[in-house]
Hints:
Layout: E1 7-9, E2 12-14, H1 17-25, H2 28-31, H3 41-56, E3 67-79, E4 82-93, E5 98-100, H4 103-112
Antiparallel strand pairs: 1-2, 3-4, 4-5
Helix pairs in contact: 1-4, 3-4
Amino acid sequence: xxxxxxxxxxxxxxxxxxxxxxxxxxxxxxxxxxxxxxxxxxxxxxxxxxxxxxxxxxxxxxxxxxxxxxxxxxxxxxxxxxxxxxxxxxxxxxxxxxxxxxxxxxxxxxxxxx
Length: 114
């Protein structure tokens, strides 16, 4: 087995990628009703991981858009032919576009390019 790779997000060190993913996912449910996340520790961490994910992922470039906020909302997804509703982080841009994004994929991307 390989050794866990630490990852730093917004100046915070996580010993394992799973710890970083847990940091974000453990806060999703309480953020559902709280509206947009525009400041604070969680905002800084989401912004850092999303910007770095975009830098490492062709097709996800910011292309001049600015991140204005994050939110958590329910989204329907199909998994193995079954539809289910999941709480999902979404990024809000300066051009009023809103996009969902995967925390596990973003954290993996950041960790592999650290």
